[in-house]
Amino acid sequence: MATSERNNKILLDLVQQPGNNLCADCGAPDPDWASYTLGVFVCLNCSGMHRNLPAVSKVKSIRLDHWEDSLVEFMQEKGNSAAKAIFEKCVPVFFYQPQQKDCVILKDQWIRAKYERREFTGENIYFQKVYSAELFEATLWKKGKDSKQFFKSTFLLSQKDFTLRYFIKEDSKVPKAVINMKDLNAVFQPEKIGHATGLQISYVDDERSKNLFVYHEDGKVIVSFFNAIRATRLAYLLKKNPTLQEKDLKHQLTAHCLKEGYMEKTGPTQREPFKKRWFTLCSMNRKLLYFKSPLDATELGAVFIGTESHGYSVSETSSRNARGSRWHCGISLETPERQFVFMCEQEQEQSEWIMAFRKVISQPMTPEDYSNEANLRRGK
Fold first, then answer.
1. Which of 41, 141, 182, 268 could form a disulfide with 31 if both were Cys (CB 3.0 to 4.6 A apart)?
2. Tell me: the pLDDT tens digits for 97-115?
3. Exposed/middle/buried for residue 352 (C-beta within 10 Å: 0-12, 13-18, 19+)
4. Cβ(45)–Cβ(28) below 8 Å
5. Against a cut of 0.70, is the pTM above it?
C-alpha cells in the first residue's frame, strides 16, 4: 500500500474514534476535514472558517489531500478530546457554544474565540470579565419601529439592576426603553433581518411581547453583545434562584423558537374571514405570538399553550369550513377558553406546526408558566 493511501486510511480510522467522530467546533457528525496545526477534525463548513485563520489553523481533507507522515503522527497525538481540554478548558456557562444548525456568525466567532483569541485556555480572564462586567455598552444598528431603515442606537446592559437600556440619540441621557431581564430573549435571525449578523431581541412590556432587530458590521461586536446578554440573564436567574447552580440555568438563558412562519387565522366565532399572519412559537414562555409581518415590533396577539391535563390539545382539521382561506391544511388548537383554527399552505408546514405544538403541550408547567397563563387571561 502506498504511503499516501496508508496515511489516509489511518486518518479515516482516527476520525471514527469517540471525540473525533463529531466536528470539534459544531458537533456535526462524520467530519472529513482536519486542522493539521491544531490537531482537530472538523466538518466542511467549519473547515472554511478555519481557512480564515491562516496564522492559527491550516486544514486538509482527510480523504482527498496528501498527508505527510509527520502530520498524521501529529493528528494521532492530538485529536478533538485533547484539543478540547486545552481550548475549551474554561468556557463560561453563559458563553453560547454553537451547534451544526446555528448561523455562520455564531460558529465563526466561536472558532475565533477558541483558537485565535484563546479566550478559554485559562491564560487570560480579560474576555470573561468583559462579558460579565456590571455595565456592557454596544453601539448597534437598530431597525426603526415603523420603518425598514436601521438607525444607530446605543445599548447598555446592567448587572446592577438586571436591565437592558437603549438610546436612539447619541447625546441622550434618557433611554428610549428600559427592558427587564425577566422576560428577555435574544436569538440570531440573519435571514429574517436580512443581515449576516442580525439579532432579534424579544421582551415583554405591559403584558405585550415586543421585538428589537439589530445588527453590527463586526461579528465580534454583535456576538460579544449576545454573550453579555446571556451573562446578565444568568446573573439575574442566579439571584432569583439562589439554591440553583449555573449549569442548572444554562438552558434558560436564551432560546430559539420552536417554529416560525406564516399561517392564516380566523376569529373566535370562526365565521370571520381568514387573515395571513406571522406566527412564532417559543417553548421558553409557552406562547404562540402572531404579527402582521416578520419584522413587526409589537405582537397583535398571543395564545398561551398549557398541558393536555389542563385542557390543551392540537389536531388536524378539515378545510371545508375554512371560509375565505386560500390555504387548506388546517390545524385545530383547543384551549380551555376557545378553539383556534389555523390554515397552512403546505402539508409539511402543517405537520411541523402540529409537532411543535405537541412538544410544548407535553412539557410540564412551572409556577412561572401558571403565572403567565393567568396574566394572559386577565389581559384579554
1. 41
2. 999 999 999 999 999 999 9
3. middle
4. yes
5. yes
